[in-house]
């Protein structure tokens, strides 16, 4: 029997590392299963190139709980180790790796910047075990070895009688980690980290009903006689998940069922998928799904999952996937993403930047092909995907450049235009006297109904732009399309929204106008600025409008990242447009009796407020009472 000192310079490094990585204790299982998987795949490679002259067979990995003995076994059928290799790989490499890890993260281990914690390897076993044994038999014709270490730098190494190839790791679970002897706990971990690992993982057995006389005619109607129960290995993973296959091998149904495999609690179908597959200048595979999003951006539970060679790493893909795409779902698998660097390090990393750009490009290409292949279907999905696309246009210039080809602008009547089509269609009717193309839009079909109707009567198209970030986006579009301006339908009187040459002649003289304005301002609250306009005599006498510029700045400031500083808290600003050519305006002007005059102004103001959804509470009650009195 050999005994020895593990070559570590930090005396009793075990309790230290245990403390540092406290919250991540559970990764030990992922690390040990990864080692077993690596050992199995290495053997596969060696046999395939003729280096190892043994039968590869159908190796599996097994995780076994021995509750009474307080032990957890991780058994693989991989290439195994000779005694010399245990000395080298476990005593020297594994421990020096762990020591290096500790040195590196001593000060920053708790910095949330570290993702994954890969690299701790075999050593992580000591986070949950007070003693660890390795019983291993190499594929080479050498005796098996048995290594034991109780957490101090001393170990023993002796021959063992194991005859089957592979490695068994036995963890004597420490008193403070007994939860790892619970079946549900291990199940949960296997399901989180190992669900798609490339070697089948057995955890216990399960009962399967199989047809007893397959292919034969069975007379009996009794199911028990036809089916027989057999105990089979309970394999917890799918070693060949969809993203490792070629897109040509997969049908739409395969993609959908993989979505549900990935998110078992998700019952909605994804809208469409994007298969990622690149091996130069970096290696990356994956499938992204567009879920139904609508316009409410609730915190999402099912996030994009990041894997490295089918080992789950994290569902925090910030910095790797462009921010606007973090609302998608799916998987990304890449061995080229450095995992033990901080978030800021990730963002500065050239390879990661390339990955992020690649993903943006692939998503844009897919959207373009969906749009050209089946526009009708794309239009139907628009409402569910627009928020991602609009956010992408705002946050990624590369995406913005491509977006012109597929981003849509819907009208209140469910027509969909691209920006170019919009310009073409509106040009004739909606260009104002200064040559600007005025794009009218509504933010809410119900609330702005009367304004929309007035615009439609003029033959104008009204877009329905209702995303929370729309004011930022139209600001950007206007910046890049100087001949274009977006105006919300309720931001001014229709004749002012798109100013044409002809002006209506005012019925009132300038003195009359002044006198009317003075009377109005006596009764109208200061919150409204009175604006006299000589409009068509049939147009509404009073209209409340909300100037586009101020409203947009305020909205942008409220939704963050733009607008004018401090405007988010400004009170709403409204104009009261009074049509001086209306009969009501003349009536107000000519009414001598002040009480009657006040009554007319208040009633008209309330009606105008009503169509802007501004009449509420006490004012609404008073208005209803007053109106009943009028028709008594
Ligand atoms: N189950 C196993 N079968 C065969 N060899 C193993 C097994 N587990 C560990 N080893 C050997 O021990 C070495 C050290 O393992 P350790 O997990 O510490 O580091 P690693 O796997 O090389 O890298 P990482 O730190 O990324 O896990 C491995 O490189 C491998 O050669």
UniProtKB/TrEMBL annotation:
A Pfam family: HSP90
Task: Answer yes or no on keyword Nucleotide-binding.
Answer: yes
Question: What InterPro entries does UniProt report for this protein, alphabetically?
Answer: HATPase_C_sf, Heat_shock_protein_90_CS, HSP90_C, Hsp90_fam, Hsp90_N, Ribosomal_Su5_D2-typ_SF
Q: Which UniProt keywords apply?
A: ATP-binding, Chaperone, Nucleotide-binding
Which GO-annotated molecular functions does the record name?
ATP binding; ATP hydrolysis activity; ATP-dependent protein folding chaperone; unfolded protein binding
Q: Does the keyword Chaperone apply?
A: yes
Residues that bind ATP: 31, 35, 76, 81, 96-97, 167, 343
Q: Which domain of life is it from?
A: Bacteria
> What does the sequence similarity comment in the record state about its family?
Belongs to the heat shock protein 90 family.
| Protein name per the record | Molecular chaperone HtpG
Native organism: Flavobacterium fluvii
Taxonomically, what lineage is the organism? Bacteria, Pseudomonadati, Bacteroidota, Flavobacteriia, Flavobacteriales
